[in-house]
Amino acid sequence: MPDLSPNHSIDILIAASVDANELTGLLNEPGLLGTWVKDHTIHVYWDPAHWSTQVHASILSALRTLGMPHPEDVIGIRDLPSQDWNAQWARQVTPIRIGQHVRIRPSWEPASTNPQDIDLIIDPKQAFGTGHHATTQLLTEWLETVIEGGETLLDIGTGTGILAMVAIRLGAKRALGVDCDAQAIDCAREYGCANGFGEELGFRVATLEQCPPSSWDVIVANVDRRTLLGIAEQMHSFLSPGGQLFLSGLLVEDREEISEAFARHGWRVLESRIKNEWLALQLTHQSKP
Fold it and tell me: What is the CATH number of domain 128-285?
């Protein structure tokens, strides 16, 4: 165990070829700040106020569940000063263009001069995504083709709220982002304010079961495979007639399992898209022609 100090974060280094989203989906203890993958090493950042031997044991258990018989051989733990952590994020985050018109930038980078661009400010925080991950890009690119104006959108596992914000900039009339992580929702609300959104954009700490009753024209869910399997049965009750569902957070190898699981509850895959090893699916429900 590292020697904990104020204003520090715990950096758990895992030299293994497991999926970071799958790993974090198995961790239920409070204090998870986020992950970063670099040079074939997963960095899992943890709030030192919540770090304990139980958390350490849970990470080892999760790695065993993901097929690693001896995870203690590939895990290291260090105490990382906050200023070093923040500097690391700042070095990694540069403006990124997604699809035809979406541009995401940190606040210290200049705005786009193209009036057709959707320019969103997302500063790196501990550590809920800045649009660089392939799953966010897949769904962002898809939204450019399906949002025509006036739609409502539910963003499950919203993180920083990028997908919800993009949908409104594309013309959706209302978007709600939900996430079970209160710290992620705090970040998303800050980004919403920083980008000038109003009541048309909402964020809520909630699971899908806790979402307010409503029918949504578009649902996006960028979460891990296990979470998707757990919500497949109830998802259709949140979709409006003619609505569409978009899933990601998946690896290519997950397609058959996810497709079959959703098919058992009346869903049909319309299209799939792949970026690197990541997969996104577009589905429709038989009760929502």
Answer: 3.40.50.150
